[in-house]
């Protein structure tokens, strides 16, 4: 057999490789330079934030790093050896016009050490996990336990092996979004936080109801002289805006452009703090807007630890594909829904109990009787006064854009002036402790041991875990023109019994000072209200609903049919008087 040599293409130019003249128009790699490469280079890395390598300058101009290049056990290269092609400038690298090697990384501190996904014990603080909280003493300041004792608690300060799954459960919306609804606007919370509108002092239109005096003996309660929380049968109305007969009269007089209540308005003004879902029904009739609530919706209950890093959770719904799954007959007393109902019960009864219903001091009647108490009612009314106030939200001098708000006060302080003239008015609220060791407690300290000696730790933890709820209370008190807020600390008699409670202490503060401590901006709240009102005034007459997304920090405005949420359409979920 003969052996034939392959054709040899000589390059007459004296260079390497075949000449282009030998393959005219057919050499597909023409004008592409040869670039050696290293097979061990990782092509998946597109950014390297490590500024401590010695060849940063090479990386900036497209050269491959020469560190860690000697091959060791397992196919890895040891330090010091250079792989083939690693020291050659890449012809395909991107070159910036300016020298990027002069840039440096600002945040170059080392990551905190972690051991197996758990907190590392040390001086009672938690490091390297979700939420920097002191293990036993409440919120943490500057990396140290500012409010607490020593040592971690395995149930409160340490992450378990399944803690990665906590909080990941998607919440359901407060209202079912129908396919017939059309979304008109979507606003993120960071945009709402930038709004500002200065509003002058309001105008008092009229007042209704009867107020009892606040019992000052509640200010002297301590953990050693605790008082049982009583269950009292009193009537207190939380009627929505459209069903308020006083507001209907004010609409006929063309008093304002927007009509609402302080409960609804405070939710909108504090919207950027909210985590749980809510919805506000907005009705436009002519040039008037009504902000309403749904009966039985989120406005009729009080949240618990809404802003905690690990808020209380409701049990997962049963799996329809697993018929053998056991569902508990009664929900846990520490679930989100059970705690919300318990907190509502505690708030109402603490407000009923902390007033003096027998003279002296005498009860104070406002200019008009309670507008919701019918002649057929036999149960006694709770101490409550309604003040209808008008705030001017006009931006321009020739503009007439006002909002009429029905505000509530719970009592008056004897010896602080005439309550009929808005002096010495008090709003009463209550914080409740359920079980500091239970899931969702938010690292709260034990009130019975810390409330008298370390009140600051308790207050700081509540401000962190209930930021939205406390902000709404402060806004409601300011809208009502109250001089004082009374907040009771109510705990369970036994952590496993949600029916019996004791009053451990009562705090007193001015609403404006309390709002400043919470970093609540009324100007920001008024800006949110005016922005939402302007959006609705641009729409035609009809019914709309403003919905807080259950899992994202944003709100959406929907246009809905006029029959939505009516009594006939929703099996009684209409705008009827709500008695508490």
TrEMBL record:
Biased composition (Gly residues): 139-154
Spans annotated as RNA gate: 298-312
Alphabetical UniProt keywords: Cytoplasm, Initiation factor, Protein biosynthesis, RNA-binding
Entry's localization field: Cytoplasm
GO molecular function: mRNA cap binding; translation initiation factor activity
Pfam family, one: eIF-3_zeta
Record InterPro entries: eIF3d (IPR007783)
Domain of life: Eukaryota
Biased composition (Pro residues): 312-321
Gene Ontology terms describing biological process: cap-dependent translational initiation; formation of cytoplasmic translation initiation complex
Renumbered residue ranges of the record's region Disordered: 1-22, 130-166, 300-334
Gene Ontology cellular-component terms listed: eukaryotic 43S preinitiation complex; eukaryotic 48S preinitiation complex; eukaryotic translation initiation factor 3 complex
Similarity comment text for this entry: Belongs to the eIF-3 subunit D family.
Functional description taken from the UniProt entry: mRNA cap-binding component of the eukaryotic translation initiation factor 3 (eIF-3) complex, which is involved in protein synthesis of a specialized repertoire of mRNAs and, together with other initiation factors, stimulates binding of mRNA and methionyl-tRNAi to the 40S ribosome. The eIF-3 complex specifically targets and initiates translation of a subset of mRNAs involved in cell proliferation. In the eIF-3 complex, eif3d specifically recognizes and binds the 7-methylguanosine cap of a subset of mRNAs.
Domain remarks: The RNA gate region regulates mRNA cap recognition to prevent promiscuous mRNA-binding before assembly of eif3d into the full eukaryotic translation initiation factor 3 (eIF-3) complex.
Subunit details: Component of the eukaryotic translation initiation factor 3 (eIF-3) complex.
PANTHER family with a match to the protein in the record: EUKARYOTIC TRANSLATION INITIATION FACTOR 3 SUBUNIT 7, EUKARYOTIC TRANSLATION INITIATION FACTOR 3 SUBUNIT D
HAMAP family named in the record: eIF3d
Protein name: Eukaryotic translation initiation factor 3 subunit D
Species of the source: Lentinula edodes
């Amino acid at each position: 057999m003969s052996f034939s040599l392959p054709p040899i293409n000589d390059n007459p130019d004296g260079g390497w490789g075949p000449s282009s003249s030998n393959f005219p128009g057919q050499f597909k790699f023409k004008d592409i330079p040869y670039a050696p490469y290293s097979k061990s280079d990782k092509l998946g890395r597109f950014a390297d934030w490590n500024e401590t390598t010695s060849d940063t300058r090479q990386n900036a101009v497209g050269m491959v790093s020469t560190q860690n290049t000697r091959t060791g056990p397992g196919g890895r290269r040891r330090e010091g050896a250079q792989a083939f092609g690693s020291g050659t400038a890449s012809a395909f690298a991107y070159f910036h016009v300016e020298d990027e090697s002069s840039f440096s990384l600002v945040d170059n501190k080392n990551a905190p050490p972690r051991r197996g996904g758990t907190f590392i014990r040390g001086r009672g603080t938690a490091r390297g996990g979700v939420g920097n909280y002191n293990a036993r003493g409440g919120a943490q300041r500057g990396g140290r336990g500012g409010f607490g004792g020593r040592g971690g608690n395995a149930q409160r300060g340490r992450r378990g092996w399944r803690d990665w799954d906590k909080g990941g459960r998607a919440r359901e919306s407060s209202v079912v979004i129908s396919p017939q609804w059309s979304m008109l606007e979507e606003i993120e919370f960071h945009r709402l936080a930038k709004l500002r509108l200065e509003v002058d002092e309001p105008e008092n239109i009229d007042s209704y109801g009867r107020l009892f005096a606040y019992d000052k003996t509640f200010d002297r309660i301590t953990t050693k002289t605790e008082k049982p929380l009583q269950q009292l049968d009193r009537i207190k109305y939380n009627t929505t805006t459209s069903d308020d007969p006083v507001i209907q009269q004010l609409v006929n007089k063309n008093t304002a452009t927007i009509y609402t209540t302080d409960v609804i308005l405070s939710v909108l003004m504090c919207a950027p703090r909210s985590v749980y879902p809510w919805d506000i029904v907005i009705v436009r009739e002519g040039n008037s807007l009504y902000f309403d609530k749904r009966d039985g919706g989120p406005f009729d209950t009080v949240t618990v630890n809404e802003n905690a890093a690990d808020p209380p959770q409701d049990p997962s719904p049963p799996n329809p594909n697993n018929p053998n799954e056991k569902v508990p007959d009664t929900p846990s007393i520490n679930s989100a829904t059970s705690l919300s109902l318990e907190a509502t019960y505690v708030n109402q009864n603490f407000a009923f109990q902390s007033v003096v219903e027998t003279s002296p001091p005498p009860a104070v009647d406002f200019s008009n009787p309670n507008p919701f108490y019918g002649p057929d009612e036999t149960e006694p009314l709770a101490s409550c006064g309604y003040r209808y106030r008008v705030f001017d939200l006009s931006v321009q001098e020739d503009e007439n854009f006002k909002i009429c708000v029905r505000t509530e006060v719970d009592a008056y302080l004897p010896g602080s002036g005439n309550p009929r003239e808005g002096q010495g008015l008090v709003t009463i609220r209550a914080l409740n402790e359920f079980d500091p060791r239970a899931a969702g407690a938010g690292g709260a300290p034990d009130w019975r041991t810390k409330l008298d000696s370390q009140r600051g730790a308790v207050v700081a933890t509540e401000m962190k875990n209930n930021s939205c709820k406390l902000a709404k209370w402060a806004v409601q008190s300011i809208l009502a023109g109250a001089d004082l807020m009374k907040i009771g600390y109510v705990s369970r008699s036994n952590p496993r019994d949600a029916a019996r409670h004791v009053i451990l202490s009562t705090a007193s503060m001015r609403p404006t000072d309390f709002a400043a401590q919470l970093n609540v901006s009324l100007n920001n709240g008024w800006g949110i209200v005016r922005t939402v009102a302007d959006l609705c005034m641009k729409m035609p007459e009809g019914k709309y609903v403003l919905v807080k997304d259950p899992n994202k920090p944003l709100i959406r405005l929907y246009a809905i049919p006029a029959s939505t949420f009516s009594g006939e359409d929703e099996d009684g979920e209409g705008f009827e008087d709500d008695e508490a």
